[in-house]
């Protein structure tokens, strides 16, 4: 009589047998094939939901994808672009007349330029010693002991000599510095150039090229009758006359010209070239918009200004200069856009996506049918059948599970 097997051996034997059965089941299921079964459910509310979902998906693809987004087209964004600008006009301050060569910086006519509207002039600066500005940190003093010789403040105007001297006006004293004297705060004179500035005209010549479609166009009317000499921009009647009044640009950006001229600011001129190349080339038109780009409500460093100097030689072979702090309106010309043209590949892709997405309605209704309907278990039994291969002839066995179906494969409820 054989001895009984220990419990541990029986446990491991059972585990191995279960593992083998699981492996055989997974291997068998790997080779199963699933085919959809058509089941007609006569339920008006479920049918309304099904058709409504299909209709919404169809409207989305027809209206938004194909009409609005034009997804049947091949597209290209970011055209190659060139911008040439030219400013014309004269203005006057309290003491003199200013022309283009003096108030436009830089003069090359690029896509970014500044029109000076106010200046603070510090004339006749020479290399020497003078009081530091009171605006510089730790510049005020009471005696020479408060001023360290050789100290250089990066925010100051020169190298400190170690002396405490009276300021340009008032009873204050500041440390003496060696540099360009007098410093800006001590002798600057303000001039306003913005009186006639709203009437300055700005020519913005722009041409674009879409290399993928070999399409080029410009924003100027191709006429030989001197059209550009007497026209100004109008969105409907003179779209191809890109000559803008500075006052018009500031107004379209929603700004007050006098305030902007005093503090300075940055205005963006945006040219948008959105072109449907399935249409005639004349339908590809530039669209202009104007917007202030710098944050005007930021208290720190509000507005826009810059400094430059003009140098002169003197009779004693020394050098003097005029320092100018300029406030102005900087114009940034920004060009963007996209072009599209019919292409078979995106059309086929989006049509296939649309047809596939219509099946979402069936998926949603199946979920409602098998989850929330009163007879969901009956529907589940009718919808899912499991069959195995029939036995070979002569075995006398039928391993197929019972199922109910009509000769056409349609189970109707």
From TrEMBL:
Q: Which keywords annotate this record?
A: Cell membrane, Disulfide bond, Glycoprotein, Ion channel, Ion transport, Ligand-gated ion channel, Membrane, Receptor, Transmembrane, Transmembrane helix, Transport
Q: Where are the bilayer-spanning segments?
A: 48-66, 351-373
User: Which InterPro entries would you find in this protein's record?
Assistant: P2X2_purnocptor, P2X_extracellular_dom_sf, P2X_purnocptor, P2X_receptor, P2X_RECEPTOR_CS
Instruction: Give the protein's function.
Output: Receptor for ATP that acts as a ligand-gated ion channel.
Pfam families (UniProt xref): P2X_receptor
How does this protein lie in the membrane?
A: Multi-pass membrane protein
Q: Where is this region: Disordered?
A: 387-413
Q: Gene3D superfamilies attached here?
A: atp-gated p2x4 ion channel, atp-gated p2x4 ion channel domain
Species this protein is from: Erinaceus europaeus (Western European hedgehog)
Q: Can you name this protein?
A: P2X purinoceptor
* Keyword set includes DNA-binding: no
Q: Which PANTHER family match?
A: P2X PURINOCEPTOR, P2X PURINOCEPTOR 2
The subunit structure is: Homotrimer and heterotrimer; functional P2XRs are organized as homomeric and heteromeric trimers. Homotrimer. Forms heterotrimer with P2RX1. Forms heterotrimer with P2RX6. Forms heterotrimer with P2RX3.
Task: Give the UniProt family note.
Answer: Belongs to the P2X receptor family.
Cell compartments where the protein resides? Cell membrane; Membrane
Catalyses: Ca(2+)(in) = Ca(2+)(out)
User: Does this UniProt record's set of keywords contain Disulfide bond?
Assistant: yes
